[in-house]
Amino acid sequence: MTTETDTNGEAPGKVSSREGALGCADEGRWAIVLLVDDQAMVAEGIRRMLADEPDIEFHYCSDPKQAVREAVAVKATVILQDLVMPDIDGMTLVRFYRNNPTTRDIPIIVLSSKDDPTIKSDAFANGATDYLVKLPEKIELLARIRAHAKSYLALKERDTAFRAMKKMQGQLSAINNELAHSNRELKRLSSMDGLTGLANRRQFDETLEQEWQRAIRSELPLSLLFADIDYFKRYNDSYGHQAGDDCLKKVADSLQKTVHRPADLVSRYGGEEFVMILPDTISEGALTIAEKMLKNIADLKVPHKNSDSADHVTLSIGVATLYPEESSGTDELIKTADKMLYKAKENGRNCIEVAHPRTAPIKSACP
Questions:
Q1: Within a domain: residue 187?
Q2: What does the angle CA 156 – CA 159 – CA 165 come to, to the nearest 5 degrees?
Q3: Sign of torsion over alpha carbons 189, 191, 194, 199
Q4: Is this prediction's pTM over 0.90?
Q5: N or C: which end of the chain has fewer CB within 10 A?
Q6: pLDDT digits (tens, 9 = 90+) for 279-290
Q7: Cβ atoms within 10 Å of 150's Cβ, excluding its own
Q8: Are residues 207 and 353 in the same domain?
Q9: In a domain, 312, yes or no
């Protein structure tokens, strides 16, 4: 079955308009042919060749100036292009098709009255897909139209599938990025103390083990500070648990601001107890940090009327430094720092006790 339209949408045969022609189309006509030729006799000859073919829809354009627009409008799958036309020659039109994003991949069968190798070469050089001497035999014309139309439709399907795949890849990438972000956020939240925002006990344990192993390899010291808010139970009893939470937040924020190296870690160890990991830090350096901690907490001037140490919130701090070895573990460092913390409490609180690596205390900042 065929449908013929000229450049104005008028059909020389039984169909009066493009709208009518498309309205008569059925799904079986998958090969849509546009003939661009200024000779009505040629157009009629080709129309008759295609008239009884149920899978081919035929359109005709006699005005070369409208050829590209017509090809887009009818959604041509094959273009039959005459080489010799008024105003615009066929070679130029072939280049126009190839330069238009919508028509650049449509197969173009050039129709020429000459079987000239030079003309053929020029046609293919300009972008023609095939070359026929008009009028061709019906069987050959049909075979070439169907072959090129199938190839073009397969190309469109491939491109459509490729675009769909790229879109899916983009969506999958976005989902993966979102999932990775969510996982990072989940990991961050799972390693953070909900009240103070400091690292929690789990993060402390993991980091201490990592720094312990790194210190073994580098043969550098590792220091640990334990700090406890003095008489915190009395503070809660006097000011209430909400005020107690606010106090913990202020202390945590102050401790976090005390250190600046990326490897230093401040954690909430539990209750009113905090711990600080100081990699590559000797005992004297750890003591300096501890003294800074005491001063910063004092500068907060958080009132504590029931403290025996001062009229404001204070800390007791225990400091331990070790040179980690394969034969020992992190428990030794933790126990030593904890022991120094309790010694600071025994010595009146609001002070610091420092243990020398693997020996008895050598420094004290307590009265």
A1: no
A2: 140
A3: negative
A4: no
A5: C
A6: 999 999 999 999
A7: 15
A8: yes
A9: yes
Give whole-number Cα distances, 280 to 209, 214, 215, 340, in Å. Answer: 14, 10, 7, 20
Side by side, which strands form the sheet with 78-82?
A: 56-61, 31-36, 78-82, 108-112, 130-133
Contact of 37 with 80, CB cutoff 8 Å = yes
Q: What is the CATH number of the domain that holds 31?
A: 3.40.50.2300
Task: Let me know if residue 176 belongs to a domain.
Answer: no
Q: Tell me which of 162, 182, 212 is where a domain ends.
A: 162
Q: Which is nearest to 203 in space by CA: 190, 184, 216?
A: 190
Number of domains in the chain: 2
**Active site includes 185?**
no
> Which residues lie closer than 8 Å to 15 by C-beta, 6 or more apart?
3, 4, 5, 21, 24
Q: In this model, does residue 66 exceed pLDDT 50?
A: yes
Domain range for 23: 18-162
CATH number at residue 238: 3.30.70.270
Name the one residue in this structure whose structure tokens are 């129309």: 47
pLDDT in tens, 69-124: 999 999 999 999 999 888 888 899 999 999 999 999 999 999 998 888 999 999 99
